[in-house]
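Inputs:
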Amino acid sequence: MSAPVLSVRRLRVEFPRRHETLVAVNDISFDIARGEVLGVVGESGAGKSLTGNAVIGLLEPPGRIGGGEVLLTGERIDRLSPEAMRHIRGKRIGMVFQDPLTSLNPLYRIGRQLVETIEAHTEYKGAAARRRAIGLLAEVGLPAAEARIDNYPHQFSGGMRQRVVIALALAADPELVIADEPTTALDVSVQAQIIALLKRICRERGTAIMLITHDMGVIAEAADRVAVMYAGRIVEIGAVRDVIGRPLHPYSAGLMGSIPKLDSDLDRLVQISGSMPRLTSIPSGCAFHPRCPRIFEPCAKLRPDLAPSGQSHVACWLYNKVPTNAEAAP
Amino acid sequence: MNLAPLVQVDSLGRVFDVSRPWLERVTQRLARQYLVAATDVTFSIARRETFALVGESGSGKSTIARMIVGLIPPSAGTVVIDGISMSDRAQSASRQVRKRIQMVFQDPYASLDPRWRAADIIAEPIREFDLTRSRAATNARVNELLSLVGLDPVDGVKYPHEFSGGQRQRIAIARALASEPEFIVCDEPTSALDVSVQAQVLNLMRDLQDRLGLTYLLISHNLAVVRHMASRVGVMYLGRVVEIAPAKELFRNPRHPYTRMLLDAVPHLDQAQERQGSVEGEIPNPLDPPKGCPFHPRCCHANARCRTEPPAMMAAGSASVSCHAVEEGRI
C-alpha cells in the first residue's frame, strides 16, 4: 500500500504572546488517502481552518507550527522555505476558500488567471494553456466555457464563481485539494451542485480532498471519513456512517442531536450548554468536560488521547482505558 | 378568544429604484431600472402560531419582513396587524401599535450598540414606552428579562463584545421582549450561530412562545430550522410566494416544483449519499426576471403556458400553490 497523500502527525499550531503561548491546534494526527474526502467538522474556534492553513503553509504570523509533521506523499513539507512552499501550493495542493471573490482577482479576466496558473505550474504554454483552461472550465460545469473564459469575476454568479475557483485549484492537477467552507456562502440548491462536483472530481481524478466545514449535512453528503474537532483537538475520527449514525464522543453526539432534521417531529433539540472555550482558558483534562453531560472522575484531570473504539477513533475516557495511576497524576 | 388572524398581508409588493445617477443616465442614455423585490404577496398569521417564510437569497423574504414591521413602506398592498393598517401613517405611527411588534435580526454583532451596556440596551424600549414608573422598577424588569432569556442578571453591566454570539442573540431577544410584544419578526435569527448554539436559541424561542403566547414570523433559508419551528410555511421564489402550506404537509407532500427541488437539495444526515434528482441552474437575475412563471427556466414540468402566463395562487387541499402544472394535474 502506498503512502497516504496527506499525513499529519501530532501537528501543533501556536500563537506566542508576551507572557504565554496560546495553543490553537493541539497534537492532531490524520491521513487522507488518494481519492478520499476527509471532512473536518467543528464549530467556530475549533481550529479546523488553522489546520488547513498549517498544511498549506499559510498561517498568518504570529501563528506558527509549534510541533509535529506534515507529509505530502511521504515527504515533509512543514519545514520548507516559503519559496519552495509557494511552488507546492497550486501545483501539488489546490485550494478552494469560502468566498470565491477572495481567490479571484476582480481586475483580470478569469481566463488570464487560469492561464497564468497553468503556465506557472505545468508545461502547457500559450494557446495550449488556454485550451486546457477551457477544458477545465467545461469539466467543472461552466456553461459555454469557450465564450465565458474572457469574462471578469463580477460577471458570474456566486455558484459559477466557485466553479471557476475549483477549476483554478485543479489547474495543475494537484494530488490534494483543501476546500475550506466551499459551500457556506452559497444557497442550498447551488451548494448541492458544488458538492456533487467535488465528489465527481475526487472519483474521476483520484484527488484527495480535505473538506473543512461547520455543516454536518455537507459532510454526510460528501465525505468518506470525518474528523470532529473541539477546542483545537480531534475528539473523534472515523467513517462518516459511524460518526454520524453512532457518534461516540459526547460532543459529537450533542452536535448531531442539536441539528434540526427535516424528518423528525422532536419538540426540543438536544442542547449542549455553554459554548466553546476561548484559547486563553482551555479547561484542563478533556477540554469538553465542563459542558459534558457524562463527566466522571478522570475527565477534569487527564487529557484523553485518540484511541480506537469500534470502527472509529475517539478521545474520551468513556471509551479509553483510564490509566491506573489516574489518582496520582497531577 | 379572538379568532381573526393577528397579521393579514394583502397583495404586498415592493419595487426598488436601482437606476444609475441622473447624470450617468443622461450622458449614457440609460433607462431607469427597477428591481421588483416582492410582488403580490398574500398570507395571514394566526395568533400564537409560527409562520415561516423560506427561500434562497434574493427571494424577497427579508423585504417582506421589513415591510411588515414598517421599516420600509410597501409600493403596493397592505399590512393589517390586529385590525390596524400599518400603511396608514396616522395609525401605525401610534406608539401603541409599534410596541406590540418587535424584530430580532440575523447578526447579533451588528444589531447591538457596542457602546451600550447590555442592561441599557434592554432597558431602552422600557424607557421609550414608559412601561415602568421608577428606575428601580426598570432595573427589576431588565433583570427579569435577562433571567427569562437564560442570562445571569449580573451580566447586565457588560458590553456586547464581552458576550459570545449566542449570548448576544439572547440579549437581542430580551430587548425584543422588553416592550411586551405579541408579535416578533425573526429575520434569520440563528444563521450567524454555530449549530449547538443555534439549538439553544431555537429552544429558547419555543419556550418563550409557550410562556408568553407569542406569534412569530420566522424568516430563514434553512429548511430544517423551519421544519422544526414553524406551524405554517410560505415558500418564496423571486419575490413571489409559490406555495403556502401547514409545515407537516409541506415537508411530507411538497407540491410546487421549486419546493420539491429545495427539499431535494438539502443534504441529509442519514446516509442518502446518492441523491436521485439533480438540481439544475441558479436563481435568475431579479433585474431581469423570466416572463410567465418565474421558475419556468429551471422547471422540468414547464410548458408554453408557464413561459407566458404567471400562475395565480390556488387552493390544493390544505395548501395553496401557484403552479400551472399542479392546476392542470400534470404533476
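Residues 111-180 of chain B form one domain. Flag for discussion at group meeting.
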